[in-house]
Amino acid sequence: MRVISQYGTGVVKVTENENTSLNCSIDSGNPLEDMMWIRGNETVAYGGPVIPDVEIAKESPVVNLHEEGSLKLQCQYDTNVHPITFKWMRNKRLIANGTMVSQQSIHLLLQNVSREESGSYRCYVSNRIGTGMDETTVVINYKPHTLRATYTCNTQLMNPAKILLQVQSFEKHIVMWIYSSGGALGIWGVTRMKNSSFFILSSDIVPRQAEHFGIYGARVRNSAGSIDTEVNVYQSGPPFVVNTSILFDRWLSIISVYFYSKSVNNDPVWFLKINNSEHEIDVESNTSNQSTSKTAIRMEKYGLQVNIPGVYN
């Protein structure tokens, strides 16, 4: 190789902001594209055809798009060697490819997008010299999504009910209580599951009296919208009676028992107390509102004291 410069040596001295010409001639059977100028570890010029210079047209490195929207990505390239092949990759998976024999832009049209289409988009352009690539990130904006509309948990009086909700969101969101049955409400914690769009929301509810068992509401919000979900807190352990009432008639007594129980779908069992022992009896009973039981006892049939279930010594 022979370097020609005005100094006639292998060292060229130049002044800043001054143009200097370097000429390099070589005898070789290799094609021109194999000849290049290298500065340090960087290739600054080729002696012949070049690999494609690729750029995805974008205003910022991240493109935000609402769910069910549309987007056209434009991949531009510059090369003097055709034909070229191209391919689009989303999150390292091939989604489109093709071949071009002349210079033109490469388009990728995204229509009615879903949240699963978020991620890294790469455009690769190749010719016989090599491959060029550029990438951009597309973020699909959507409202938070919960796996269930209603969550249930069990606890006892003065004990916290641990609340855990799983939510999907494209960004970290905020969560707040929107209605309550009266229990003490905890602060919400938000934790992202590693490398995913799922979050775990955690809080607690402490029922301090019987009326605090019931339905609570939470709202999860991000910049695209919000969603409401319910938390139903049940009493765990044995049932307990809140209060009772008895309506006496001439031959009929109607007993109403207000109670809380985990087994809300089962009617209570009624007993007669005879000489300090309890005997199960068959009565017409119904349970409503998950916490109220009424029964009619014909006193003339038994002529004995009725022991109300759930009242323990």
TrEMBL record:
Pfam families: Ig_3
Domain (Ig-like): residue spans on this chain: 52-141
Superkingdom, natural source: Eukaryota
This protein's name: Ig-like domain-containing protein
